[in-house]
Protein: D-lactate dehydrogenase LdhD
Organism: Clostridium saccharobutylicum DSM 13864
Amino acid sequence: MKIIAFEVRDDEKEYFKKYESQYQCEITCVPYALTQDNLSIVNGYDGVSILGRCCITADVEDRLKELGVKCCVTRTVGYNHIDVNHAHEIDLKIANSNYPPTGVADYTVMLILMSLRHYKQAMWRGNVNDYSLNGLQGRELHELTVGVIGTGKIGQCVIKNLSGFGCKILAYDMYQNDIVKKYAEYTDLDTIISSCDVISLHTPLLESTYHLIDKEKITNMKDGVILVNCARGELMDIDSLIEGIELKKIGALALDVIEGEDGIYHEDKRSDIISNQKMAYLRQFPNVIMTQHMAFYTDIAVESMVKCSVEAVHDFIKKGTCETSI
Ligand code: NAD
């Protein structure tokens, strides 16, 4: 069984080696993304392992199928970069990764706390020996209401983490979950929008969730609301975020992901002109924390992402299905 893994970082290589021998397969690792231009390289491989920079459109899927690939597995949890419907139509098997949600959930709580305590500004001041307190007075979580939108694996874990802080937690999802009900009160989206001090997003990016947070929703939020996004950038309309910050409607933004991050995040762009003007503009505000889509990035998650992808190809080929099949 032969697998080709794209976008492989150095820190993933030892795990590909480990699971190559465990699953008795042959794995080729390449650092670049799979594109229309280099598609022919997959010829002779049974399965393809990708990350988020590979855009698996219907055309790419047709070519993969023609070249004999049986399955395409993403090492990410989100799979908005894959045309899943078309893959089903042509019987190209697709799977995602199911690493533990704890890393992203911990990171989310960290961003909430950093925002409440103006940590970005405190850090800036420390760098220039400015130890003043003016403007750094924070708020305490136990006095606030936090809204969690999307109560799947990560949202649920965020809610459990937050329950230790004593805040009121409101939750919204189309599917209610009994574990969540122990710590949070389910309500409708409008109530989350209008009554929460902090709102954190944990839904996948779908047609129905694109720009879930837009101008109208921000207008209906509490003044000084803190918005956190560790899910996908396109869940929030970047123009509306900018307007909300400029009008001081939004008290703080903590974004591990941002609309238009593709081609920028996970690259060293120090010597380049940043092509996403809005992203560069948002970054300079004292109350906007932006990180490079790294909430997932822990030792446990990286090993698990690699293992999941190798296991998925192995199981698709040997058993016709796998646990993380989409
Ligand atoms: P999950 O599938 O377990 O949960 C998603 C939840 O969202 C589900 O309960 C679903 O019912 C709900 N949902 C879908 N549409 C909704 C809507 N319109 N309104 C409210 N709820 C809705 O997924 P997960 O493992 O919790 O991950 C969530 C997302 O986080 C992923 O899709 C991925 O995009 C993102 N993610 C980001 C990082 C990072 O490093 N920043 C890492 C992992 C995952």
Remarks:
- The two ends are 21 Å apart (CA to CA).
